[in-house]
Write a structure and sequence with these properties.
Blueprint lengths: L1 H45 L13 E3 H9 L6 E3 L2 E3 L6 H6 L5 E8 L5 E10 L1
Parallel strand pairs: 2-5
Antiparallel strand pairs: 1-4, 2-3, 4-5
Length: 126
Amino acid sequence: MRKSVANIMEMLIGAVLFGLSLIYLMTHYKALSGLTNLLTEEAIKDNSAIQQYNSNALDQVNHAEIYAAIMGYREYPIMVDDNLIPVNGDEYELYFSYIKNGLYKKQYQYDANRNIEMIVYSFMGK
């Protein structure tokens, strides 16, 4: 008898603890989702998070995107106005001297199997 009462008490305590943990998780979930919604609204109001895609012409990029492509991980060689930037090159001052301020047309060169061979940027003007 004593053992069965102890088992019932353990089950009741476990159920109470389980219920309290579910309440705790739900309150934190609501707080985190509210914070996420607030941050999303602020990012949309600021317009900086989606500014890159405000243009209708997706093949036209700003000179700043070329700087980012050169400084980031390069999977393919980059050509800027007939100046080749190799995949593993690190002469950034030389590469940045190729870039003029303004808009560039971005094109991809493909091989015979339709795999990207190179990314080509051509200066279009300011």
